[in-house]
Amino acid sequence: MAKITLSNIGHSYNKDKDQSTWALKPIDMVWESGKTYALLGPSGCGKTTILNTISGLITPHQGRLLFDDKDVTDIPTAQRNIAQVFQFPTIYRSMSVFENLSFPLVCRGWKADKIKARVHEIAEILDITDKLGRSAVKLGADEKQLISLGRGLVRDDVSALLMDEPLTVIDPQSKFELRKKIKAINKINNLTVIYVTHDQYEAMTFADELLVMSFGEVIQRGTPEQLFEKPNSKYVGNFIGSPAMNFLPVESRSGEMFFGSTKLQVKDSKGDLKGKALEVGIRPEYVSVASAPGENVLEADLLGHDDLGSVRVLKCISGGAPISVKIPRSQGIPASKKLHLKLPSEKLWVYQDGNLA
Amino acid sequence: MKKGYPRFFLLPGLILLIAIIIFPLLFTIRVTFSSWNVSQSGLNFIGGENWSEMARDVRYWGSLLRLFYLSFLTVAIQYVLGFAIALFAWKGIAARRFFRVLWLIPMMTTPSLMAIIWRSIFTEDIGALNGLLNRVGLDPVNWLTESGPANFAITIAEVWQWTPFMFLILLAGLLSLPKEPFMAAAIDGASAWKTFARVTFPMMAPISIGAIMIRLIDASKIFDSVFTLTRGGPGNATETPAAYIFQRSLQDFQIAYGSTLALTYLILAILTLTIIGKVFARLSKPKGI
């Protein structure tokens, strides 16, 4: 495992001079050894570009890449000791499962008996020992993906494990099993893991730290809790959490926030804010249905609800602003269409021009 | 629609098939049991005389053996060269578009033009090759009038003309390969040779087999280069079955005997190519159960 440092790394596929169009805008970042990171963002936001830059499949347009303070920018992929699992299961079609797993070791000139022992050890962890003699091409997508992962794990020189949306093509049941397996393996191997996904649940359950990306930039970096509790922008608030964060347009009058005529107490208020787009944000999980008017209580109309199994999402509207409320199933759907919604002050955040004030 | 109608729609195809394949084939079989030749035309019946004559025809079996050697050797060379050139073009060398067109020129050349080109090179007294040998102080070689060199000349001409076909098919195959296994091989630390041997080559197996089979089918009919360069000579040292059958059937007008040779040749070609196809399919099967 290794500490990975991106020093002013940027990349443009068409070598454009205008940095605003780059797939990865210049970035400075350090990834600590032994930690698990998730890169989260919509398609085309630069997640895979970062991964491929680290593995050497892409030479960055500018900047330096360091592994444990050693510059590896110009070192070819084969010598970087990176393991990478791709979105689509990548196996060597002509080889058996055993040969697939042993290939990285054959490339490193290991002796046959040592290879055999190591491959069996990894196959045991991945629970595919009984499939070692089978033709890799005949296996299912989830088993093929395990082989891809196994090829990374079988080596004893891996600096970092990069996973590029490895569960995208896996069916939901296998996805759950595979995710469990990957987590267990990471614990055993204590690798530096960078996990690319656009599935926030996958990212939040998997990683120590999350990096939310948009248009080639990292918008916010933090623990899953930090990103959920206090998103630094409307973008992150909308991207993390389901349903997305509620944003209500507010006015600041003498240091106090007003939603229409309702005064809203905000615990972490920054005083008198001036800005065209002043909003307060709150997670649907923290909005509750109140029995009577009171402090930080809005009147709202119930438009309908979504049934999500153990929880329900009430779709409400107040003063023209939509508000989602997540309630446990046991609470039942309110009988009246006129609701009072409580917005706890400690869970309200003020956003100015789209960013946390 | 009535039940039998769909079968009517098959009729045009069936009639065409019967007219151009089944009828000539059956007719040829019937002809082999006749003595149809330049002086006696028509379908009389002489039993298996033509077949027993063929069994004793050393020249015919010799030409078949020669064909084995020529077709396997030329196709093997074409495959290796074609693959190498395709790899260069695939990996991207400078001016690759220009080279792609350049490499296709031999395949687009008509056989008669090819004959002129290669005869001008191999002709013994005024040919370019002997001129070159002379300049470097070597003795001239009887390229077209001596058995070994004549076979060599035909091999070269065949390779020159058909390597571009291999190149074209294999390049198309290489360009259609997925990128991920190559990325995985780079990550796994594979050298250039290991990547070729364990990734590129196995992935190219189905395309390679297709290209080799097409070329073998074509090479089993080698005629143009033999006829234009050596006319089967010296003696019959470069004679292939196609050239021999042409001579017996259409020059000596021994229609019945020529038909016997042609029919045997067809059966042997089908059998051999089927076996080769099966062997290739088995060899290219992924490892493991």
What descriptors fit this protein?
heterodimer, A: 357 residues, Rossmann fold, six-stranded mixed beta sheet, 22 strands
Spatial order of strands in the largest sheet of chain A: 6-7-8-3-9-10
State the end-to-end distance of chain A: 38 Å
Radius of gyration of chain A: 24 Å
Low-confidence stretches of chain A: none
Biggest sheet architecture of chain B: none
Q: Helix/strand/pairing class of chain B, anyone?
A: mainly alpha
Describe this structure in words.
The complex is a heterodimer of chains A (357) and B (289). With 357 residues, chain A is an alpha+beta fold. Chain A folds into 2 domains: 4-235, 3-Layer(aba) Sandwich (Rossmann fold), CATH 3.40.50.300; 242-356, OB fold (Dihydrolipoamide Acetyltransferase, E2P). Chain A is 24% helix and 32% strand. Chain A has 8 helices and 22 strands. In chain A, the strands form 5 sheets. Chain A has a 6-stranded mixed beta sheet, sandwiched between helices. In chain A, strands 16-20-17-18-19 form a 5-stranded antiparallel beta sheet, with no helix packed on it. In chain A, strands 2-1-4-5 form a 4-stranded antiparallel beta sheet, covered by helices on one side. In chain A, strand 4 and strand 5 form a beta hairpin. In chain A, helix 2 (97-107) crosses helix 3, helix 2 (97-107) packs parallel to helix 4 and helix 4 (141-153) runs parallel beside helix 5 (172-189). Chain B has helices at residues 5-31, 49-55, 58-91, 96-108, 111-122, 128-135, 147-175, 180-188, 192-203, 205-219, 224-229, 241-251, 255-283. Chain B is built from 13 helices and no strands. Chain B is an all-alpha fold and 289 residues long. The model of chain B has no long low-confidence stretch (mean pLDDT 89). Chain B has a single domain (57-283), classed as MetI-like (MetI-like fold). Chain B is globular and about 75 Å long. At the A-B interface, strand 6, helix 2 and helix 4 of A face helix 8 and helix 9 of B.
